[in-house]
Amino acid sequence: MAIGRVISREILDHLPADDPSALRGRQDLRTINALMGNVRWMRRALRRATKQISAGKPLRLIELGAGDGLLCRKVSAWFPGSALTGLDLAPRPCALPKAISWREGDLVDRLGGCDGDGLFGVMILHHFADETLARIGEMAAEYNVLCFCEPWRSRFPHFLGMLMRPICGTVTRHDLPASINAGFVRGELPELLRLRGWKIEESVDWRGSLRLMAWKD
Length: 217
Known about the structure:
- By secondary structure, the chain is an alpha/beta fold.
- It has helices spanning 20-36, 38-50, 70-78, 107-111, 130-140, 155-164, 170-181, 188-193; strands spanning 60-64, 83-88, 101-104, 118-122, 145-151, 199-205, 209-215.
- Strands 3-2-1-4-5-7-6 form a seven-stranded mixed beta sheet.
- A hairpin with a 3-residue loop joins strand 6 and strand 7.
C-alpha cells in the first residue's frame, strides 16, 4: 500500500475503562489478536529474544499499552519470577495479580520512569505520530530487547477487516480500519524508532500483522 501513515482518532482510546462499548471493544481485540496469532508470536519472540539477555536471571519486562492486563498475565506465566510492569492510560485492572506492577498515564511519560530489560506490546505503537515514535526509540535505547506486533498497512488487511465487521461491535468497526491506516509497512518501524545498532528481525503475517523483534548483542 503506497500511501503514508494516517493517524486518526480511535474511539476505544477515549472511552472510560468500564464503559460497555469499551468492554466490547476489548473483547473484540482479544478475538482479533487470537485470529491473527499475535499472542502466540509474542510468546515465541520473547522466549527467543530474552535468551540473549537473561543468563538465568529474572527478567524485567514492560508492556506498552497493557489494556486489560491479559497479556501481562500471560507473560508472567511464561516467565515465572520475572518482574512485569504494565503501562496504560487505563487504571489498573481489578483482576491483575499483585506481583505485576502498573503505571497509569501517558505512555511516553510513564515509560521515562521505568527500568527494565525488555519492552513489548501488541497493537500499540501505531497510535503514535512519527515524532513520538522517535522519542520512544530514544528511551528504548536503555533496554536490550523489543518485541512488537503492529497493524500491517496494506489493502489485504482492510479486506480481512471487512469480513470481520459482522462479528465486531460498533467501536471496533470504526477503529479497525483506522488502526490499519496508522500501521506500518516493512522497514518503516525500525526507521521511525531510529534503531541504530540493533539486530532486527521483521516479518509480515498475511493475517495483518507486522512483527518486529530487536535485540542488542
